[in-house]
Design a protein that fits this description.
Layout: E1 2-6, H1 15-33, H2 44-50, H3 54-58, H4 70-76, H5 84-105, H6 107-128, H7 140-153, E2 158-165, E3 168-175, H8 176-198, H9 209-226
Antiparallel strand pairs: 1-2, 2-3
Length: about 230
């Protein structure tokens, strides 16, 4: 299920969303310039330096030099990606749903919202797997926060979706509550499966499902805290 666009017009230029996409692309190009492995994954040393490693965040493990500080890696990790499909997927969701959330919150509030949602996502994954030595990277947690806010703001918006099931390919219009509702259900199911398989130690790699869940729930909560009370904009 790949969203292509929604039908909610934006009343302002979403320059924060555009800037965030630009920064993520620039960071990915830099990662590419310093080398990718044979499978197209980002340089391991760079990812371990600037990715958010749960056991570093909790203080259960240390990295020589401790640079950057663990709290900083929570934010630097949001702009790193493990491969082309990783960044394309995240930026597609941000582009489709971010402009309307930015339009609702205002530019300054949206930037704060995005960073706080991303931080909450990283902390959620850390809380579930506090001893994990696997670095978290990607904008997925922050983008998940955007999806959570969008679901509350525009549940009946029509989203154009590309459905692919084996040889079955179809383009349909579905309400946002269906598209994003299915998305978060998938995150919960996969999160429970991986947790059951790896336990709280978080020894398994792959997708940080609980970062997605944490970011989504944080986005819903932050919407009520950050949204202008009288429709104002920043």
């Amino acid at each position: 299920m790949i969203p292509l666009r929604d039908d909610v017009p934006s009343n302002s230029v979403p320059f924060v969303t555009i800037t965030l996409i630009g920064l993520n692309v620039l960071a990915f190009l830099y990662q590419t310039s310093i080398g990718m492995d044979s499978q197209g994954h980002a340089s391991e040393a760079f990812v371990f330096e600037f990715g958010a490693i749960p056991c570093r965040v909790t203080g259960n493990c240390a990295v020589p030099g401790e640079f950057p500080p663990p709290v900083v890696t929570i934010f630097t990790s949001m702009f790193l990606h493990g491969g082309l499909f990783h960044i394309v997927g995240n930026m597609l969701y941000l582009w489709i749903f971010g402009d309307n959330v930015e339009d609702t919150l205002g530019h300054g509030r949206f930037l704060a919202f995005y960073l706080l949602a991303g931080a909450a996502a990283a902390l959620a994954q850390t809380a579930v797997h506090p001893a994990s030595r696997i670095p978290m990277i990607g904008a997925s947690g922050a983008v998940s926060g955007v999806l959570g806010a969008y679901l509350l703001l525009f549940p009946y918006a029509s989203v154009l979706v590309l459905l692919i099931f084996g040889f079955f390919v179809r383009i349909v219009h579905w309400p946002a509550m269906i598209v994003l509702g299915l998305w978060i259900v998938v995150q919960f199911v996969n999160g429970l499966v991986t947790f059951s398989a790896s336990g709280s130690s978080g020894g398994a790699g792959g997708t940080a499902w609980f970062a997605h869940i944490g970011g989504f729930l944080a986005g819903m909560a932050l919407l009520f805290l950050i949204r202008p009370r009288r429709g104002g904009r920043l």
